[in-house]
């Protein structure tokens, strides 16, 4: 359960006014530091004999603490003039009115707000005194208003979605190697040009998986590509031969079971060339795109047309782009064992979070306090590991809402899908942001989420919606 505080600059109290003849138009408000009580007092509603007066003494109390406000006295003729002669009707001490005469008085009193006033009552004490100030009747007391300045708090349940467990945790690590071969050769020279670095990268990729006790390699694939220059047949020979040479190199290093490794090749990497040209600022780019995407032409004819019609661009591509089209893409597929204890999951998350399933990360999060930084970290790791997952984005959004990070929550919800739970989260976010019509629309769309109707009812109770 999360509490959301909707702060306002001037909070009106919940007034439950009870009738008191001289008093009307009662209003009690508080600012950050003051309490403001205002009302209209009508002297014509009180008929006092000439030598009598009625005192109206407002009191704020919570049963333990109390504060008297400036009183009002409605006096008969004799008492009225006695007060004038004695103290001149000092408005700082009290405000005096003539019984049965004059216009209503707009009473207003501002006092420092104290915490104990949050739940209190505005009481009116009424005393009738005689000519010597002696009480002629017992004090009457009536509650003018019940004051409730507690923050209007929206307390929605944050609904998380438990991810489904993976029956088998399959993973893949992949890369591209740019092995340098001598002209028209297919054999690998490990010391030639940049080959030491490229081959070391391949070994490091395989070793990282192979040496992990939690992992079982299921397949290793290599696909080779040649660039489009020269005859297609020769490029096909080079792509095939160079791919097989790389696979032989790997087989010589590792004792993989038969059938674990697979190979394929593509004679000319036209897709890579198209991708480069499409995003480039080459002169005649659109015309060049028409040539290199023309599948009605055989590869050699396509390459010749490019070379003959756009010689300058072709020379640039041959020097700067074609070397990158001679590559070998490799992928290591593997299975990861399941993790049972939250302690084990926490340790793996710290070192190799890619080995964890969404369900394992969620299980670990459930062992933490939802409001803690550690819980938020788990949800953020989950969405980094599974950026396209509706569930991961939804849970990350819910966590962000709980931390008041609305912009981040909106970004996650944009990728959270349209499930009822996602609609519920959007409704809670809009309610937190103060857009109550949008909140209700989303909450009503969250069919099947039991908490949605409860959230609507709570917004209604707090007065945020009708």
Mean pLDDT score: 91
CATH architecture of the largest domain, by name, is 2-Layer Sandwich
Biggest beta sheet summary:
6 strands, mixed
Radius of gyration: 41 Å
Number of helices: 15
Number of strands: 16
Query: How large is the share of residues in beta strands?
Result: 15-25%
Distance between the terminal alpha carbons, to the nearest Å? 24 Å
**In CATH, what is the homologous superfamily of the largest domain?**
OmpA-like domain
- If you consult CATH, what is the topology of the largest domain? 60s Ribosomal Protein L30, Chain: A
CATH class of the largest domain: Alpha Beta
Summarize the amount of helix as a percent range: 25-40%
- Stretches where pLDDT is under 50 for at least 5 consecutive residues are 1-20
Number of domains: 3
Oligomer: single chain
Shape: elongated
Class by helix and strand content? alpha+beta
Structure description:
The chain folds into three domains: 4-151, no CATH class; 169-334, OmpA-like domain (60s Ribosomal Protein L30, Chain: A, 2-Layer Sandwich); 340-461, Tetratricopeptide repeat domain (Serine Threonine Protein Phosphatase 5, Tetratricopeptide repeat). The model is unreliable at 1-20 (pLDDT under 50). Helix 9 runs antiparallel to helix 10 (373-385) and helix 10 packs antiparallel against helix 11 (390-402). The chain is 38% helix and 23% strand. Strands 5, 6, 7, 8, 10 and 11 form a six-stranded mixed beta sheet that branches. It has a four-stranded antiparallel beta sheet with strand order 2-3-4-9, with no helix packed on it. It has 466 residues and is α+β, with helices and mostly antiparallel strands. The longest helix has 22 residues, at 232-253.
């Amino acid at each position: 359960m999360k509490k959301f505080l909707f702060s306002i600059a001037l909070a009106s109290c919940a007034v439950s006014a009870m009738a008191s003849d001289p008093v009307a138009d009662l209003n009690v408000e508080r600012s950050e530091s003051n309490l403001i009580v205002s009302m209209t007092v009508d002297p014509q509603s009180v008929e006092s004999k000439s030598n009598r007066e009625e005192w109206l003494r407002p009191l704020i109390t919570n049963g333990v603490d109390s504060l008297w406000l400036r009183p009002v006295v409605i006096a008969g003729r004799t008492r009225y003039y006695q007060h004038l002669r004695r103290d001149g009707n000092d408005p700082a001490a009290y405000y005096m009115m003539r019984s049965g005469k004059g216009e209503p008085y707009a009473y207003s009193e501002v006092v420092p707000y104290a915490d104990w006033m949050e739940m209190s009552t505005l009481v009116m004490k009424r005393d009738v005194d005689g000519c010597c100030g002696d009480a002629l009747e017992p004090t009457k007391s009536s509650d003018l208003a019940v004051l409730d300045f507690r923050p209007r708090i929206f307390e929605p349940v944050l609904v998380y979605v438990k991810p489904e467990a993976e029956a088998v945790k399959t993973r893949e690590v992949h890369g591209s190697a740019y092995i340098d071969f001598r002209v028209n050769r297919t054999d690998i020279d490990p010391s030639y040009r940049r080959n030491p670095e490229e081959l070391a990268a391949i070994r490091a990729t395989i070793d990282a998986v192979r040496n992990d006790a939690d992992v079982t390699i299921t397949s290793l694939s290599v696909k080779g590509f040649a660039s489009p220059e020269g005859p297609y047949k020769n490029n096909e020979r080079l792509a095939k031969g160079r791919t097989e040479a790389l696979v032989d190199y790997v087989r010589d290093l590792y004792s993989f079971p038969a059938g674990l490794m697979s190979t394929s090749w593509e004679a000319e990497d036209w897709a890579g060339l198209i991708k480069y040209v499409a995003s480039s600022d080459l002169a005649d780019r659109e015309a060049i795109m028409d040539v290199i995407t023309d599948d009605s032409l055989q590869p050699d004819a396509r390459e010749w047309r490019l070379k003959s019609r756009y010689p300058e661009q072709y020379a640039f591509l041959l020097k700067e782009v074609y070397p990158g089209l001679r590559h070998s893409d490799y992928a290591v597929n593997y299975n990861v064992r399941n993790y049972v204890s939250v302690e084990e999951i926490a340790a793996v998350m710290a070192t190799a979070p890619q080995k964890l399933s969404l369900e394992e990360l969620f299980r670990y999060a459930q062992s933490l306090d939802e409001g803690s930084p550690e819980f938020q970290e788990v949800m953020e790791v989950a969405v980094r590991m599974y950026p396209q997952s509706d569930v991961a984005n939804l849970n990350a959004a819910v966590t962000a809402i709980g931390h008041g990070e609305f912009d981040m929550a909106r970004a996650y919800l944009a990728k959270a899908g349209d499930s009822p739970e996602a609609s519920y989260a959007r409704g809670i976010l809009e309610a937190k942001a103060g857009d109550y019509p949008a909140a209700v629309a989303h909450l009503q769309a969250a069919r099947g989420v039991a908490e949605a109707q409860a959230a609507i009812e709570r917004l209604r109770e707090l007065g945020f919606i009708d």
